[in-house]
Structures
1.
Amino acid sequence: MTDLVRLGAVAPLELVRLHNDLDGSAGANRAVGIRPQIAAQNDIEAIKAWLARFADTRTTFDSYRKEAERLLLWAVTELGKPLSALTHEDLLMYQRFLGDPQPAERWVMKAGRKWSRFDPEWRPFAGPLSPTSQRQAIVILNTLFSWLVNAGYLAGNPLSLSRQRQRKAKPRIIRFLDEELWTEVKATIEAMPRETDRERAHYFRVRWLFSLLYLCGLRISEVTANTMGGFFARRDRDGEERWWLEVTGKGDKTRIVPATNELTVELARYRRENGLTSFPLSGEPTPLLLPIGGRQRSLTRSAVHLIVKEVFERAAQRLEARGAEFCSRAQLLRSGSAHWLRHTAGSNMADSDMDLRFVRDNLGHESISTTSKYLHSEDDQRHQATERKHRIGW
């Protein structure tokens, strides 16, 4: 395969082939006189050995691969050095590069769509990284370098000299929709066109997605990775049937989330619109969110993200149409993401005086090792409290 990086191009990790002087087989920072704990002979093999630890957690794997890939490509393309020869000073230059990846035609994807990793138009960046994303990138790379040192592949960690400042926790969540903005988002969804079959399908899919994100406080990854077979019903101590949704989320942890009456109404409506029975069977493989057109496959995280951003953009335009005094509110809405709905859900539950233990368990902030076979009285109280105090109010 052609040495893509030597030609001044960049390519995904899977396609990169490097000559001996750039592949790290003789990198200046390679460990000497130490028996390595991994079989890697070059930098790409070492990165793949590190990534293999995260293969079972797709979100983490993709995030970690992205940061390692970016650094490797930058090192060989911009500096003409292998990753295993980078110095502390090189990493300081790279931190500045993250804030403005230049030349843009080499590093930044064209706007308007998300390119496949194997498309010639693919680039490692969608644009400059925010300060928060820059810090996250360095944290991940520090993890990579530390692991490679412990594995006996590198002699030292060039990031270990960086000043490690402990960030103070923010006193409160600020990335959420207040009542006014949340009401505007719901009104925007209700105003979506429904004249054609496709418009109607899109409307009900959006309404169901926002119900999941808000009433259940789900992450995008949890929407795309779980199925409708996770819904199940049990009778509580008073004999009342209550629905729950079992979710496998971040860190492969499983939790059960109350499926309130509002949510089950939306579930039944969405399923009927897609030609399904009102309620799913246990273990049913139907994805929580379906593509338009009847194919029962999961949407990608980027596709769900775009659906949410499209709704926020429509809501922002509605706000701007009211006058200049609403422009700042519209811009705030444009900066939002699907994760803001999770924060909005948590804020509403907490503000409604729900027991914080119930909020914690609904959002999965604490580890839940297994899903209980039987609902305990505390779970029943959590369901009742969620039913009474956490509503979407379509």
Note: Strands lie at 231-235, 241-248, 254-259.
2.
Amino acid sequence: MIKMVVFDMAGTTIDENNVVYKTLQKAINEAGFDFTLDQVLAQGAGKEKFQAIKSILATYADNTDEQLASEIYGKFVVHLRDAYANIEIFPQNNAVTLFDALNEKGVLTVLNTGYNKETAESLIDKLGWEKGHTFDGLVTATDVGKNRPNPDMIWLAMEQFGITDAAEVVKVGDSIIDIEEGQNAGCALSVGITTGAHTKAQLESANPDAIIDDLLELLPLLDK
């Protein structure tokens, strides 16, 4: 029996028009690079953002300078704060409808993210979502020692709600690393969704249990 679904935020349950990765691209390219948004998404999607910067630099520029990555991250945080102050964000299609349906089934809804807690909470506040009402829990990259694809965020969510068996948990996300996180946690299902960072073909490369195009498509999967 499924007791909890852990959802990624941006691209999965929240539609913010890729502003995070556009901002990440801007911060990196200001340091003298010329990476495309597709490159940033391919290597950065779903990761804690400092790690994302390091991955992008190492993959496309063979650059492992930690100090440079740290400086870029500092600029990214400032740029992102400014961006979020001035943009509208929206729930992903059918997100709240799905949360309500899961609540009726007695299934917990937990959000997890590669953002830090401040950024995640600012997004949630903008949407008017309330912990304990719209959703049940939030785990962010700054709550754990190891980030995706390590399973620590999912395990922390399980601990917070007294769940001891990952076979009672489902993970849903829009990136390869989300799927890997669910697999590494031992989740009953690791589900990709095509509404965000990675294409269906990219998601398929991680061998998810299912790929969906809309959040409501998750419900019949839980009933199987």
Note: The domain at 19-86 is CATH 1.10.150 (DNA polymerase; domain 1).
